[in-house]
Amino acid sequence: MFGNDPIVNLENFDKQRVHWGYFLGFNIYDFKFDYKVPGQDIQVDKTTGFNVGLVGNLRLHEYIDLRFEPGLFYTQRDLHFYGFAEDDELNQLREVRSTYIHFPLLLKFSSLRTGNIRPYLVGGVSSTLNLSSNFKSKDDNLQQRFRMKQWTSNYELGFGVDLYFEYFKFSPSIRGVFGLSNEIIPDADPNSPWTGNVASMKTRAILVNFTFH
User: Fold this and answer.
1) Domains of the chain: residue spans and CATH
2) Residues in domain Outer membrane protein beta-barrel (predicted)?
3) Quick check: helix, strand or coil at residue 90?
């Protein structure tokens, strides 16, 4: 497959107008906080989550494709707030477990194929539905309930490589997700120690996907 003169697999695969696939992968989600008054930052402990989804690919040009990649994403971020005693974990810590349905619309820019290898760049926009947002809750952090908006918007940039095997195409990729909208729902108290000094909270994430066509 990777030799000087390899057998070319799936030679006409990319000439299809439309083709489908699926992906599995993992993610690392973070938050970017902006504050009203400079002070001690909210600390974010990140964990590794899991992705699964579908891929729909529309060929626009020999080197350009339009892709729709809806997926289900599981992740968790632990937020550590300052101003509380070290043994006051009930108020100091908020575990933000999130289940997202992610809807990215992307343009894929492929290079010239060399044997069975074809690198590419990808970028676009996405909307994300947070199924664990607590956006309808009347309780807030005073009742240990951290709330986020249900829908958010993002832009995404990444790169990957298509590897052509005898019976399928395998595409590992890495992508950054950058939130455009403020996701936090402030507490009822404008001077809340959890949200009072937060001007905005936006998602940052790294996605690593393994796609099979």
Assistant:
1) 13-212 (2.40.160.20)
2) 16-183
3) helix
Mean of all residue pLDDT scores within the chain? 94
Structure tokens at 46: 């990140």
Q: Which residue has the tokens 């060929």?
A: 59
Amino acid symbol at 152? T
Provide the token pair at 86. 């070290």
Residues 131-154: pLDDT tens digits?
Answer: 999 999 999 999 999 999 999 999
Q: What value does the mean pLDDT take over residues 179-201?
A: 95
Confidence of residue 160 (pLDDT cuts 50, 70, 90): very high
Q: By C-alpha distance, which of 186, 125, 176 is closest to 153?
A: 125
Per DSSP bridges, beta strands 151-164 and 93-110 are: unpaired
Helical residues (DSSP H) of 19-94, grouped into ranges: 89-92
Distance CA 133, CA 45 (A): 18
Whether the CA torsion 136, 137, 142, 144 is positive or negative: it is negative
Q: What pTM value is reported for the model? A: 0.91
Looking at residue 39, its pLDDT comes to: 84
The phi and psi torsions of 72 (rounded to 5 degrees) equal -110, 125
192 burial level (CB within 10 Å; 0-12, 13-18, 19+): middle
pLDDT of residue 3: 56
3-class secondary-structure state, position 142:
helix
